[in-house]
Every structure is written in structure tokens, then in C-alpha cells.
Amino acid sequence: MNLLEEKWLPVRRSSGQVDWIAPHQISEPDIVAFAANRADFNGALAQLMIGLLQTTTPIDDEDVWDGFLDKPPTTEVLQKWFEPAAEAFLLNGEGARFMQDFSLTAAEGAECTIDALLIDAAGGSAIDKNTDHFVKRDTIKAMCPHCVAAALFTLQTNAPAGGAGHRTSLRGGGPLTTLLVATPSHCLWQDLWLNIKPQRNFLQQGGDAQKTAKHFTFPWLADINRIQPAGGETQPLQVHPHHVFWAMPRRIRVDFTEVQTGQCDVCKRDSTQLVHRYVTKPQGLNYKGVWRHPFSPYYEIKGDWLPMHPQPGGFSYKNWLAWVLGVKQGKKSVQAAGIVNYFLQERKKYQKSGQFRLWVFGYDMDNMKPRCWYETTFPLYGLAEAKRATQIQNLIANRIEAAEQAVFYVRQAVKQAWFGESDLRGDLSFVDKAFWDGTEPDFYRQLEHLMSQARTESGIDLDDDKFIIAVGETWLKVLTQCATKLFDVDIVGAGPIDQQDPRRIAEAYNGLQRNLKGDAIKIILRLPVSEKKNKNAKSTAKQQVQSSP
537: part of which helix (H) or strand (E)? Predict the structure, then answer.
């Protein structure tokens, strides 16, 4: 089965119909989205198709790229692009197989049930301890080849820690992915093509473009030792730049020898080739060094740049600045994903339309255990044409910092109202989530206003105190209203009064209001602060008056 010819990609057409297509059909205008039964499959399939297009496209010019955005290549043209890579997309058979170890045999590998390809499958420890409460064991017993291919790519792209010698993905376990998409989405082709660079631009970003042998791009086409010596590491210069899309940290070989007929437990379609097991072996490609995946933002720690990963609580506008424009504030430095930077710097004409967003997704992993899958979209605004762009970024950063201060005050007040000075503790992360969600629409309204004004001829005068005070007071009002409502109505106020301490609640409420009107949050927003009376100075002055003749 060759995945470049097989109709294995689940998509949704504009009519609402779910269909399965071959990769070269991806430019059909009525295809609007991937339609797998799993969110992680949809995210992985988008990355797979972007990777395939970037690996094979001959486009070297930004003007030609621009032409293909609205008038995509025909299926015949795409077939010609993909044809040189055909041998890398055989899923079964002897020899090289898609995303599977070239030389691994059943005799030398450990046997696993097919559900272990899924990142959220119940692990051996959960089964032994009988803690598989939410994702039950034996839910997935058989997969069709189409779902096996999607699961293989999803695992290799997001691979979490898997025990001794079972490597994490090129970006570590459960990486954060950010992709450009159109809004409203006209067709899937456009969403994918937005994330493609002209080939010459892409080949300059890392790796060794002189390593043209195919196994340097598709590592499963040869024995692992052709890239990495036993016990060694894989650095960017050991492979071709396109390898970044096809990284293979896990050594896996699917067992196609005993297939059966029945229904796939993932896509629920009938198949005559249901697969039940695979074998695996440790010591896959060990990715080390200065890798820069084009779809992930990176943060700096001790001089090294590492890919970002989703964290508990999910995504909100507090992440917008770092993941869209990047930040450098004090000790905090984050760079947006390479494709996002490229779009904002080189494709400026698209930024004024407001028709593009950032699709953000990934697993929040606790070592090898997935805690949650998060997914959202952010509006996309750039400052390439704005005057004093750095200062405007700082202004946006101040909005976010003030919100972080306010949510701390709310959490503190709720804890005081419920527990007082007690050492009792609870998970109050729901307070943060409610606050970020409650203030998000107002943040994006103010952000859109600031961005629109920044791109005007007059721009934003950051030395205009009246302007700074006006936008600061508007945002502080939003924070205050949301914080008060959460405390007084949605959280503390929603509890039965006979089970609460009214005095403690009143003290917590008053403390919250004092903090929201205090100087700390005003200083962040560059608002006027109250004049503090220096008691020592007054006392000294009084003594001088009394001692004077």
C-alpha cells in the first residue's frame, strides 16, 4: 500500500460530507478540513501534508507561491511533485516502510498491542494498577491500515517519554504546534499552503542541503546506523533540512502478517486488513543539538533555545504575544515559530486583511502520561509596518502582565474567603481559566484597536500620556469588573450562605478591591499612582519646627 496513491486521508467537503482522498487530491477546492475521529490525528495530518508539500515543491519564488495560494496546482501537478518520494510512503511489504524501522524484525523487538501507537492509550502501569478510569484498556483492539499510518506519524511527531531508550520526538514529548490558517477557511489547500516557504528559503534554515540521499530526509529508507552510530546522537547537520518533518525517534515495525476482516476501532469503517500488533525496540534516533522546527515557538533558558510545550490550563491570550510576535522582557525570551516569523516579515500584504489566524494545538504531557489535548486559534496581527514596534509590543505585554496580577488577586481572595488563614489547599486553577476566558474578548478588541492605529500614518505616540492613561484605564476597568463578578457572583457568591463565613468573605472582598485599585497594577499599566505620604519625612519636619527659635 503506497500512501501517495491510496485514498486514506479523511477530509470534510464544503457540503459536510466526509470523504477519503489521496494526497494529490488535497487541492480540490471543496475540501475544507481534515476529518479524522481524533483531534491529534487532524493536527498530525496537517503537519504531514505541509511536510510533504515543503519537501517536494519546486517553488523557489515568493510570487509563484502567491499565485498558488488562490489558484492551487492541479492533481496532476501534485502527482509529479510527489512522485520522487513514492518509495518512502510504502506502508507495508518487505523492506522500507513509512515511519517504521528499516531492519527491525519480530524476533528482536518487544511485541505491543496496536493501541499502544496512540499517545493517550492506557499504559502498562495504569493497567497494572487498575487506574485506567477514563481511557479504558482494550478499547482499541484493531486498526485499519489508514489509521495505522495516521497513528504512526502522530506518535513519531509527538513522541513522549516511553521508558529507557524509547526516544521523545525531535521537539521533545508533546510539542506545541502553531500553524497559519485562513479565516474564514475557503479550502484546506489554502490553510496548508500558508505554511510553505519558497524552497530556497526553507533550505537555509538548518541541516545540510548537500545530503541529498533520500534516507537523510526519510530515515526509514535505510538502517538507522546510516544516520546515527550505535549509542550516538542525531544533530541537524547529519541530515537534510527536510528531515525535520519526518523525524523518527521510535523504532517500530507493524505486523501485517496476521490481518483480519472487521471494523476498525478508530475510524469505525470496515476493513479486510485489520492490524492488531507491532514490535518495537529502544535506541531510535536521538535528536540533540540546535534543532529549529518551523512550527514551534522556542524559549531561551541558560543560552539554549528549547521548543515550547502546552502546560496545564491550556491556551489563552496570555500566550498571544509570545507565540505570535515573540517577547524579550527581563529574563523571559520567546521567539515565535519560524513559519509565523516568516509570514509576518515577508508576507506583509496579507496582514491588513485580518483574514488569518494561528492554529495552536498539542498535548499537555506529564512525562509519558498525557494530561490533556489543547487546541484553539489566535488572531494574527503583525507589526512589520508599525512605527516603534518594540514599544508597542511592550504596551501589549503590559496588558497581559496586568491581567496576570489581577488573576493573582482573585485567586488570593477566593482562597481567603473559603479557607481563611488555614493551611488547607485546593486546586484553584479554574479561577485562572474563568478569568482569562472572561477578559479575552475585551483583550482582542483592544489589541485590534492598537494594531490598527499602529499601522496608520500617525502611528501610536507612546509619549502621549493621555493616550496611555486612556487605554490603561479602559483595560483596568475590564479587569476590575471581571475580577469582581467572578468573586461576587460566579465563585464565592454562588456558594450557599449557610456554609460560608460572611465576615471572612467581606474581608476577602475588600482586600480584592483594595488590590485592584492599588498602585502595583497601575504601575504596570503606566497609570498615575497615589502620592504616598512619607511619615518619616513629616516627623523630621515637625521636629525641626519645634526646635527652631
Answer: helix 535-547
Q: pTM for this one?
A: 0.91
In angstroms, rounded to a whole number, what is the distance separating the alpha carbons of residues 30 and 26?
10
User: Using CB atoms within 10 A of its CB, is residue 231 exposed (0-12), middle (13-18) or buried (19+)?
Assistant: exposed
- Which is nearest to 327 in space by CA: 399, 394, 383? 394
The 3-class SS string of 257-324 reads CCCEEEECCCCCCEEEEEECEEEEECCCCCECCCCCCCCCCEEEECCEEEECCCCCCCCCHHHHHHHH
Which 8-state DSSP code applies to residue 2? B
Lookup: cell for 76: 496532476
Is the bond into 184 cis (omega within 30 degrees of 0)?
Answer: yes
User: 411-437 as b/e, with b when 16 or more CB fall inside 10 Å?
Assistant: bbbbbbbbeeeeeeeeeeeebbebbbe
Tens-binned pLDDT, residue by residue, of the chain (549 aa):
999 999 999 999 999 999 999 999 999 999 999 999 999 999 999 999 999 999 999 999 999 999 999 899 999 999 999 999 999 999 999 999 999 999 999 888 899 999 999 999 865 555 555 555 456 556 899 999 999 999 999 999 999 987 788 999 999 999 999 999 998 878 999 999 999 999 999 999 889 999 999 999 999 999 999 999 988 999 999 999 999 999 999 999 999 999 999 999 999 999 999 999 999 999 899 999 999 999 999 999 988 999 999 999 999 999 999 999 999 877 789 999 999 999 998 988 776 656 899 999 999 998 888 999 999 999 998 776 666 677 788 899 999 999 999 999 999 999 999 888 877 777 889 999 999 999 999 999 999 888 888 777 777 877 888 999 999 999 999 999 999 999 999 998 888 877 788 899 999 999 999 999 999 999 999 999 977 644 444 444 344 334 333
Query: Quick count: other Cβ atoms within 10 Å of Cβ 70?
Result: 11
Helix boundaries (H) for 386-428: 389-419
At a CB cut-off of 8 Å and minimum separation 6, what does 454 contact?
383, 386, 387, 389, 392, 460
CB within 8 Å of 538: residues ≥ 6 apart = none
Cβ–Cβ < 8 Å for 205, 217: no
Cα(442)–Cα(120) distance, integer angstroms: 35
For Cα atoms 162, 153, 168, give the angle at the middle one, nearest 5 degrees: 25
3-state secondary structure at position 122 = coil
Residue whose C-alpha is closest to residue 269's, from 16, 516, 36, 39: 36
